[in-house]
Amino acid sequence: MKIFLDSANLTEIREAKAWGAIDGVTTNPTLVAKEGREFFPLLKEICGVVQGPVSMETTCRDAEGMIREGRVFAALDPHIVVKCPLTKEGLRATRQLTNEQIRVNVTLCFSASQALLAAKAGACFVSPFVGRLDDISGDGMGLIRDIKAIYANYAFSTQILVASVRHPMHVVEAAKLGADIATMPFAVLDALVTHPLTAAGLDRFLQDWERLPASAKTWKTAEPSARDTR
Ligand code: G3P
């Protein structure tokens, strides 16, 4: 499963990239507004760091406006994916932009019927918001299961990009269900790594190592030759 970072914060993106953990980034107007920076230079800088798909959301409600913005966004960098909302106007824009070979991530998806229409509009990605469904006692991961079944029945090429991820189990469940991608805040990515037994185990290894006498711990101090022939 691919992992995207749901962030427009370059410090977080650089850190996650350095771990080798992320394959792309998703942004939205809320995340971009948090950074308080000029939109295009920020997204261009993110593309330079990520070198993978970077979703950039349109900021209008009508198809003509989304198409107009989508063309400009796509011209900014080859890694840009245009985000359109799952509305009738958003589907219309998705169809037109896709016809122009511009990749679209259809966002704010909350039902299997919406996801079916996103695939029929030619979306490259669909973003079901599992956390926001769970937040109102819905079944976020059940939606992923339904979309996966529908897409498999008809060999749709639209990639399932699980979004609105709140905790590591959303990521684990998404992987078990065979979602293509999960996008998550840095805090969730960080929580994927951390386990108390790992920390405790490492502490124990190194404490035991410290008990070994120094004489038993010598090794070559010289830099190893390009290929140590001994
Ligand atoms: O960016 C799309 C989605 O991941 C946002 O989710 O619910 O955390 O705002 P949320």
Summarize the structure.
The protein has eleven helices and eight strands.
Overview of this structure, please?
By secondary structure, the chain is an alpha/beta fold. The protein has helices at 10-18, 29-35, 39-50, 63-76, 88-99, 112-120, 130-135, 140-154, 168-177, 186-193, 196-211; strands at residues 2-6, 24-26, 54-57, 80-85, 104-109, 125-128, 159-162, 181-184. The chain has an eight-stranded parallel β-barrel with strand order 1-2-3-4-5-6-7-8, surrounded by seven helices. Helix 1 runs parallel beside helix 3 (39-50). The chain starts with a strand and ends in a 19-residue tail after the last helix. The mean pLDDT is 95. SN-glycerol-3-phosphate is lined by residues 6, 26, 28, 127, 129, 131-132, 163-164, 183.
List the helices and strands and how they pair.
Elements: E1 2-6, H1 10-18, E2 24-26, H2 29-35, H3 39-50, E3 54-57, H4 63-76, E4 80-85, H5 88-99, E5 104-109, H6 112-120, E6 125-128, H7 130-135, H8 140-154, E7 159-162, H9 168-177, E8 181-184, H10 186-193, H11 196-211
Helix pairs in contact: 1-3, 4-5, 6-8, 8-9
The chain binds SN-glycerol-3-phosphate.
Give the helices and strands as they follow along the chain.
EHEHHEHEHEHEHHEHEHH
Termini distance? 42 Å
Strand count, sense and barrel status of the largest sheet are:
8 strands, parallel, barrel
Helices, by number, come to 11
What global shape is seen?
A: globular
Helix share, percent? 40-55%
Uncertain runs with pLDDT below 50, 5 residues or more?
Answer: none
- Into how many domains do the coordinates divide? 1
Q: How large is the radius of gyration?
A: 22 Å
Instruction: Output mean pLDDT.
Output: 95
CATH superfamily: Aldolase class I
Biggest sheet, strands in spatial order? Answer: 1-2-3-4-5-6-7-8
**DSSP strand tally:** 8
Q: What percent of residues are in strands?
A: 15-25%
| Main structural class | alpha/beta
CATH class: Alpha Beta
